[in-house]
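Sequence only, no structure available. Ideas?
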Amino acid sequence: MKKNVLFFLLLSISAIAISQGKIVESLIIHSKGLGKDVRYSIYLPSDYESSQRRYPVLYLLHGYSDDETGWAQFGEVQKIANETISKGDATQMIIVMPDAGVSWYINDAAGKVKYEDFFINEFIPFIDSVYKTRSKKQYRAVAGLSMGGYGSFIYAMKHPDLFSAAAPLSAAIWNDDHITGMPENGWKNYKFNELFGTDLAGKNRLTETWNKNSVLKLAATVAVEKLNQVRYYIDCGDDDMLVKGNMELHSIFLDRKVKHEFRVRDGAHNWPYWRSSLPEVLKFISEGFHR
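Reply:
I predicted one. Tokens follow.
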């Protein structure tokens, strides 16, 4: 009996050890398009160095005012990924966390900071060339919180040929009324005057750049066939100031019959909520990684 207990204990310890991936923080890629170095952190599976296999990739995007270390330091992504994988709820994967500054993951109106072009045309090809990734769409997903949730929607809706799944958490989603009525200090604090190309108020804020990068407009106008090329997992707390925008997006998806999972749970716009979301995100995207 004691031998059996010891045997199962050793099996359990081995299973846990197998799933201990690691994070390397603040690596650098030089972007020709941005004209500067961009930092990124990366989670590598436990058997990455010893295995000959290639891995699916999750691009995990940080929020406003954070950087490439946010998910590692405050989101505890290494601990959560290791635990979720060791339980068998998620598959072994590479998790990439780039620094986007306050770019909102898009190209600004003036063409000075073309972050979306960098991400799509430089960063993804770079990761696929340097790391042992599975580079087909089926094995690539994007997720993020707040500004990163916004970026997740933008990339999935604009580039459905590149991502199998998107999991925006507490996504920064606003409608036209919110944008036109935003106080001037908020408009400038979020750098929207630079991003969307105007210092003006009211309807003058609804510029071409805004219209091309409004999550709600994309949800309403992109062909349903394209939207349904991506699996969506949308999660926002009931005490989050962004929950109304997420509910409006949910309503549009329902009306247009866009397949998606939608969650409103008890919680606010904070790290405890996002940490509690991450295991379900990893589980959801892993389901798409399997055939």
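The longest strand covers residues 22-31.
Hope that gets you unstuck.
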